[in-house]
Amino acid sequence: MRRIIIVALLLTVACGSETRPAVQKFSKNPISVRGWIVDVEGAAPAEKTFETEMVRLTQQFQSTSIWVENAQYVSGGVAENGAFILLDVPPGNSTISFNAPGAETARIVLENIPGNADVLIPHVVLKRGGSTLLKPAEIRVRVPARIDAAKPTGAVALVNGHKVPVFDAPLSAFVARRDYPNPGGIRPLATFK
After folding, report:
1. What number of other Cβ atoms are within 10 A of residue 74's Cβ?
2. 40 sits in which H/E element
3. DSSP strands (E only) in 71-182
4. Rounded Cα gap, residues 68 and 47, in angstroms
5. I need a labelling partner for 10 at 20 to 30 A (CA). Which of 24, 38, 153, 163 fits?
6. Per-residue CA distances from 64 to 15, 71, 105, 180 (Å)
7. By CB neighbour count within 10 A (0-12 exposed, 13-18 middle, 19+ buried), where does 90 fall?
8. Cβ distance 103 to 41 under 8 Å?
9. pLDDT at 158 over 90
10. What pLDDT shows up at residue 44?
């Protein structure tokens, strides 16, 4: 009798009418997304000197947050120099969101990104509800392969609507895949706290 009651209770719990939210799983072939922010649209002051611009940009980037919509387990951030990195981003279609003063809900939309890819998006200008890619020809989507030289795969990814060819690249080209990129340009020389 006890066994029947236990089985009935287990079936009642297992067959309950509650719907559970979908649990996001870790991707077996996540991508990395790297790049750098140049500025926020409309944020430049009227009078600009080297020193004031350096301070303004540093404060702008320190106040910027980044995440991937509907992806719980992504790690990364924005550095003081505007460089950003996101690791463990699900492949396929993703939306990268930024929250910066003057550019709340800025976005970069990625489509058709193959698994294990490294996506480099340089020269980004954030704006409310979107972003502008100043040099779309410099966007790179690379997939690691056991080859000696980079070669196109024939696949095409979309980054903010810009068509980007997907390349197979040698494993040695991925040494810095988990590091912030170096944007160059005006950057702080020292940080005081």
Report:
1. 19
2. strand 31-40
3. 75-78, 83-89, 92-100, 103-113, 118-127, 130-133, 140-145, 151-159, 162-170
4. 35
5. 24
6. 45, 19, 11, 15
7. buried
8. yes
9. yes
10. 65
Which residues, other chains included, contact 5 with Cβ-Cβ below 8 Å and sequence gap of 6+? Answer: none
- Give the DSSP H/E element, type plus range, for residue 146: none
Q: Is the pLDDT of residue 84 over 80?
A: yes
* DSSP annotation of 72: T
Confidence of residue 96 (pLDDT cuts 50, 70, 90): very high
Tokens of 75: 């790690």
- Is there a contact between 160 and 131 (Cβ–Cβ < 8 Å)? yes
Instruction: Fill in the amino acid letter for 25.
Output: K
Query: At 62, is the secondary structure helix, strand, or coil?
Result: helix
**Residue position matching structure tokens 């779309």:** 136
Q: d(Cα 157, Cα 113) in Å, to the nearest integer?
A: 6
Pairwise CA distance, residues 61 & 84, whole Å: 10
> Cβ(168)–Cβ(117) under 8 Å?
no
Please answer whether residues 121 and 95 qualify as being in contact, where contact means their C-beta atoms are separated by less than 8 angstroms. Answer: no
Contact (CB, 8 A) for 136 and 84:
no
